[in-house]
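Recap slide: Trichome birefringence-like N-terminal domain-containing protein, sequence and predicted structure.
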Amino acid sequence: MITSGLMKHRRGKLSFPIIIIIVCVLVFIAMLHAERLSFISSKSIFKFKTCPRKNTKPQSILAGDDKRVEEEYVLNASWIDDRFEFDSKECNVGNGKWVFNHSIKPLYTDTTCPYIDRQFSCVKNGRTDSDYHHWEWQPKDCTLPRFNPELALRKIQGKRLLFVGDSLQRNQWESFVCLVEWIIPEKHKSMKLGPIHSIFNLKEYNASIEFYWAPYIVESNTDINIIGDTRKRIIKVDAIMDRAKNWSGVDIIVFNTYVWWMSGLRIKSLWGSFGNGYEGYEEFDTPIAYKLALKTWANWVDSTINPNKTRVFFTTMSPTHTRSEDWGNKKDTRCFNEREPVKKKKHWGSGSDKRIMSIVAKVVKKMKVPVTFINITQISEYRIDAHSSVYTENGGKLLTEEERVYPQNADCIHWCLPGVPDTWNQIFLAML
Ligand SMILES: *[C@@H]1O[C@H](CO)[C@@H](O)[C@H](O)[C@H]1NC(C)=O
Ligand SMILES: *[C@@H]1O[C@H](CO)[C@@H](O)[C@H](O)[C@H]1NC(C)=O
Ligand SMILES: *[C@@H]1O[C@H](CO)[C@@H](O)[C@H](O)[C@H]1NC(C)=O
Ligand SMILES: *[C@@H]1O[C@H](CO)[C@@H](O)[C@H](O)[C@H]1NC(C)=O
Ligand SMILES: *[C@@H]1O[C@H](CO)[C@@H](O)[C@H](O)[C@H]1NC(C)=O
Ligand SMILES: *[C@@H]1O[C@H](CO)[C@@H](O)[C@H](O)[C@H]1NC(C)=O
């Protein structure tokens, strides 16, 4: 963590970080004297190690007498506040940019981590370009600490962490497992994969990192035996208990649901008294069906989850990049062969439905139980270069060399691992 605390000053003059460190140390000592040792909770120690850029005073002030300024800083200690650590309320994490840094290495690869699905194992599947591994997200107003596996394990020690949702949630779950698993000795960990519920057990830490397949969160006729024909899919927008009974008692729960709703303009929905087997469905416009389902989820959370025991997170929609026109590529090649993130600020494509985003925001706002957003949409929107693309499988079979030359075979929904979901988890860990 200390290194990450220093890093954000890398663009300043050499003497600048040293002054900040001295100030931090002086203030720390001063506070120790004032507050005694009771002041040191692990949290406050953590704070002192991550001074964000925005709290540093303009360089011009520092041009004068260093010592005087230092004293002034200590006297004016009010600027040392909670913003020392990444705070999602203070800092809009979506406002920032991807910075290329060749010396950044992912913490794992798709060969070192044994838990990555074929769908996300791009390098193993033949992807040879590697620039997409070296981009780092930098929010404008704060510093996002790098993912620290030891810290992550400490935060989930004695706890159950459960990811509930679709294959993108699985993408995020596998990323989280791979980010931490490599520091745990073989005999202290185990993975139990299931078609619905998968559990990664960390015995030494008395913890687990789990995934529960529920692509709409609510129930549907295509949860377990997936129906290929999207027109035959019917969603029980007001039914959740069948799946949700397996989610109680966890300490940290992370939901998502988006991409499965985007299969058409209207959704066949079973709702209230219409329910008469799967025959009695109604067709709703997608946002209406989505809203009904999300309210069902919100009611379940509010009536079941004890916020004193369980923290609830919601990962916002992961953008799909199937229309290359969105980023000015007229060749209609989806995300095929894209090698760089979109540069245009606030780029927002047609694969992220703003109506859905506003429904999620509105429903959550009315809930009793606090729900923290892992708002990944904007940051991921830039990353047209980081999808599985043609380095994936189709119907359980790896694409052949011949199949790989066709852009229409590219998967522009899921993400390579290591890759963008590692940044989602970096944000998640900072808020945990
Ligand atoms: C310290 O606080 C005083 C009074 O609020 C202010 O005038 C002064 O500019 C501050 N100094 C610094 C370095 O922020
Ligand atoms: C997520 O961030 C985007 C912009 O970065 C914003 O438009 C949207 O409202 C946020 N979503 C939620 C649910 O807060
Ligand atoms: C790039 O990453 C390395 C290794 O983490 C770090 O030391 C360096 O300061 C970074 N450079 C920039 C320009 O961000
Ligand atoms: C492990 O965690 C569970 C709760 O998740 C707790 O009931 C149990 O006492 C813990 N066991 C140890 C050995 O810490
Ligand atoms: C869900 O919970 C029930 C008991 O409450 C259990 O029998 C069942 O195996 C669980 N299902 C999954 C997929 O975990
Ligand atoms: C949570 O804790 C607070 C303060 O300890 C208490 O007032 C409240 O009743 C608790 N809520 C629940 C649902 O247990």
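Residues 1-14, 31-64, 71-84 have pLDDT under 50 and may be disordered.
The first helix runs from residue 2 to 7.
(End of recap.)
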